[in-house]
């Protein structure tokens, strides 16, 4: 009888996936990412390098790796990044280290990056990438969230609001779009997307032998 491989619950012999969450600033990527990481121990966070100043409470090496512009430029030159972009007047980049080896081992990674980075990762690793875009329920609510977060000056908030519609215009470059109105509802949808993507046929390479066994002519 064919042995059901351990891949039936999608934990083994599967290439990892790159799960990207993008949105206009303030729509809730960080909030949903933190919930997902707490909920799913198989998911690792891709910690970006940035030249922006840490917000109160942000921890170097956990939320971001904070570098000077000079250090960042050197890292670009050294080929340190899978992708990088200028966002809101600062540089942001995804380090290569860990991710490539992790994917081969079947580990999944969560990316909180903008549409420019998403495009770059998709061009490099189309089959590994799952692109999810979060929308705010309205622009008024987006402004309210940015203000209520209390981490940015009025000037920074105005700059991010001014870019929001340009960011939203890239929504059609994503595989999934979820409106983040109620946090728990949005989170449940993101969890469902992740579960479905983990079961995608292309990723479950460990199932091939099992399926062949099932298809062997009966004697
Ligand atoms: N569904 C929601 N309802 C109400 N408030 C929310 C919701 N989702 C997130 N928030 C709040 O909105 C603020 C912005 O959320 P968050 O920091 O997660 O956004 P972000 O998309 O990561 O922003 P940025 O791109 O600037 O990092 C936070 O104070 C968060 O608690
Ligand atoms: N292309 C990339 N974009 C990134 C990366 N890390 C974060 N970001 C995006 O930048 C903005 C602003 O982030 P904030 O934390 O300063 O509010 C947001 O859209 C992030 O998704 C990255 O490595 N590459």
UniProtKB/TrEMBL annotation:
Top-rank EC class of the record's enzyme: transferase
Lineage top rank: taxon: Bacteria
Domain Guanylate kinase-like as annotated: residue spans: 16-195
Positions contributing to ATP binding: 23-30
Pfam families in UniProt: Guanylate_kin
InterPro entries documented for this protein: GK/Ca_channel_bsu, Guanylate_kin-like_dom, Guanylate_kinase, Guanylate_kinase_CS, P-loop_NTPase
NADP is among the record's keywords: no
PROSITE patterns listed in its UniProt record: GUANYLATE_KINASE_1, GUANYLATE_KINASE_2
HAMAP family referenced in this protein's UniProt entry, alphabetically: Guanylate_kinase
Function field: Essential for recycling GMP and indirectly, cGMP.
Protein name: Guanylate kinase
Annotated source species: Novosphingobium anseongense
């Amino acid at each position: 009888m064919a042995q059901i491989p351990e891949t039936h619950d999608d934990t083994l012999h599967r290439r990892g996936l790159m799960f990207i969450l993008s949105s206009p600033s303030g729509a809730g990527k960080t909030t949903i990412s933190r919930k997902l990481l707490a909920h799913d121990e198989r998911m690792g966070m891709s910690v970006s390098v940035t030249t922006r100043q840490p917000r109160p409470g942000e921890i170097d090496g956990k939320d971001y790796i904070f570098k000077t512009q000079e250090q960042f430029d050197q890292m670009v030159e050294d080929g340190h990044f899978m992708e990088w972009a200028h966002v809101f007047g600062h540089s942001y980049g995804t380090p290569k280290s860990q991710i490539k080896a992790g994917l081969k081992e079947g580990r999944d990674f969560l990316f909180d990056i903008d549409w420019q980075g998403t495009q770059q990762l998709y061009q490099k690793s189309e089959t590994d990438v799952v692109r999810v875009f979060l929308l705010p329920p309205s622009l008024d609510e987006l402004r309210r969230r940015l203000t209520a977060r209390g981490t940015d000056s009025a000037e920074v908030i105005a700059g991010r609001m001014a870019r929001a519609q340009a960011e939203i215009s890239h929504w059609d470059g994503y595989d999934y779009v979820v409106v983040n109105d109620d946090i728990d509802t949005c989170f449940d949808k993101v969890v469902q997307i992740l579960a479905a993507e983990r079961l995608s046929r292309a990723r479950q390479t460990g199932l091939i032998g099992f399926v062949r066994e099932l298809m062997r002519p009966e004697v």
